[in-house]
Amino acid sequence: MAQLLLHNARVILESGVQHGGVLIRDRQIALVFPHEQTPAGLSASETIDLGGAYLAPGMIDIHIHGSAGVDVQSTDAAGLAKLSAFLLAEGVTGYFATFVPSDEQGYRDSIAAIGSYINQQDDAYRNNKAQVAAHILGIHFEGPFVSEHRCGALRREHFRTYDGDARSLEQFISGRSLSPRLMTLAPEVQGGLDLTRQLTRNGVRVFIGHSQAAPAILDLAFEAGARHITHFPNALDPLHHRKPGAVAWGLLRDDVTLDCIADFHHVHPLMLRLIYQSKSADRMALISDAIMPAGLGDGEFSVWGEGIAVRDGRTALARQPGESTIAGSVITMRQAVRNIVDLGVPVHEAVRMASLVPARIAGIESELGSIKEGMRAELIAFDDEFTVRLATIGGAVVSYRA
User: Fold this and answer.
1) CA-CA distances (angstroms) from residue 279 to 186, 257, 336, 337?
2) CA separation for the pair 141, 131 (Å, rounded)
3) In which element (H, E) is residue 219 found?
4) CATH code for the domain in which residue 383 is found
5) Do 80 and 134 share a domain, yes or no?
6) Model-level pTM greater than 0.85?
7) How far is the C-alpha of 227 from the C-alpha of 258, rounded, in Å?
8) Distance between CA 171 and CA 373 in Å, rounded?
9) Based on the domain organization, do 221 and 168 belong to the same domain?
């Protein structure tokens, strides 16, 4: 029976921070304990003293296109392994490979590559083979059923409307090896509400984004199954006192969750504080929306057939140098958590926004996203500078820096 004791840590729980640790047994958290009740009797090889570091659930990124020179839609198993290793070093233990709109063949090729890699990861997990890599948890389709008036950096030529034929959705519906799936759509596009209902019936989590929908349409979309807004408030109509749109609707509805890119470029720090005060840490998730150049520094890159410039941590379309269109981010989830803490958010709430809240949004909170008994032991430890010191996947230590 494999077991591991992580102790002398500041354990980040849902309700706060506790000095103590966890006992991992057979890939699951078997015990969460305060410091004065640290279990005895384990061997030195089964025990790690974390020296007062934070111990947290692994972060879950529900919206990421790539990093470390890898794009999830144009790579192979080796590229996905490189990306997954980079993300684990940044504290992400699970993520949803996020696709921008593509043609049919592009979708087929990308889905096949992701599916094959997920199967490899699942086989390794079942066979107790250590993986120094974050898990791909599923696919997030950002589009193609979105508004051409709020396209952001997405390419309009691949946008679609829904004609009611369920066969046109087959590649977006969850397969056994690629479940769960997520989709961001604009409910006001032709067939958008029927599309939301059809996807929801088939187990796809529907998000609202790249949209100009009015509150009345958003109410109908909520009833059809769309309960979350993507990279709020980006790619939505700006808030206007006579045209409130999705921004006011999302801020006011307690039954709607949001996710944000906390890089201070996509959303001003003051706006992030407003969103946090309006929604609380329970209804606000952090995402990276990172693209291939993340982790590579400043420069000129080709992403999705577009020239993209990265300057001082901000991306921009090279074809629109004088405009304000931002083309994804180059932030990591670890940096996003640090930024949110710098705004005055308690560390346990910032971590919740990067772990439990994304897990709830994706429907996987029964297994991942929090430290409590019975959960999968996918954990990270980090110091006061938010440098990741340890990571466990499947209960095994796969990354450790003393």
Assistant:
1) 22, 8, 17, 17
2) 26
3) helix 215-224
4) 2.30.40.10
5) yes
6) yes
7) 9
8) 36
9) yes
- For residue 398, give the H/E element and its range: strand 396-400
The phi, psi pair for 212, rounded to 5°, reads -115, 20
The one-letter amino acid code at 187 reads: P
What is the amino acid identity at position 282?
Answer: D
* DSSP-assigned states of every residue in 173-190: SPPGGG-SEEEEE-TTST
Residues 105-120, mean pLDDT to the nearest whole number: 92
Q: When comparing pLDDT for 303 and 376, which is higher?
A: 376
- Residues 338, 381, single domain; the answer is no
> DSSP label at 254?
T
The letter for the amino acid at 127 is N
Structure tokens at 351: 């971590």
Query: Position of tokens 């991306």?
Result: 315
Residue appearing with tokens 């066979």: 127
Question: Cβ atoms within 10 A of the Cβ of 123, count?
Answer: 10
Burial status of residue 60 (CB atoms within 10 A of its CB: 0-12, 13-18, 19 or more): buried
The β-bridge relationship of strands 396-400 and 388-393 is: antiparallel
Of 182, 255, 271, the C-alpha closest to 218 is 255
Q: Are strands 3-12 and 17-25 parallel, antiparallel or unpaired?
A: antiparallel
Same domain, 353 and 376: no
CATH of the domain at 243: 3.20.20.140
Question: The domain containing residue 381 runs over which residues?
Answer: 1-58+369-402
Using the 8-state DSSP alphabet, how is residue 58 labeled? P
High-pLDDT (> 90) share of the chain, %: 77
On whether both 302 and 378 belong to a single domain, the answer is no
Each residue of 21-49: pLDDT tens digit?
999 999 999 999 999 999 998 999 999 99
Integer-rounded Cα radius of gyration of the chain:
21
User: Are residue 151 and residue 172 in the same domain, yes or no?
Assistant: yes
Listed in order, strand segments (DSSP E) in 190-318 are: 204-208, 228-229, 257-261, 284-287, 299-303, 306-311, 314-317
For residues 189 and 63, membership in a common domain is answered with yes
Strands 379-382 and 388-393: antiparallel
Cis status, amide bond into 293, omega within 30 of 0: no
Q: Would you tell me the crossing angle of helices 269-279 and 245-252 to the nearest 10 degrees? A: 50
11 and 68 together in one domain: no
Tokens found for residue 186: 């604009």
Continuous segment of H or E residues that includes residue 126: helix 104-126
Pull the structure tokens for residue 334.
Answer: 């670890």
Overall number of domains in the chain:
2
Whether residue 61 lies in the annotated active site: no
Catalytic residue among 254, 289, 312, 384: 289
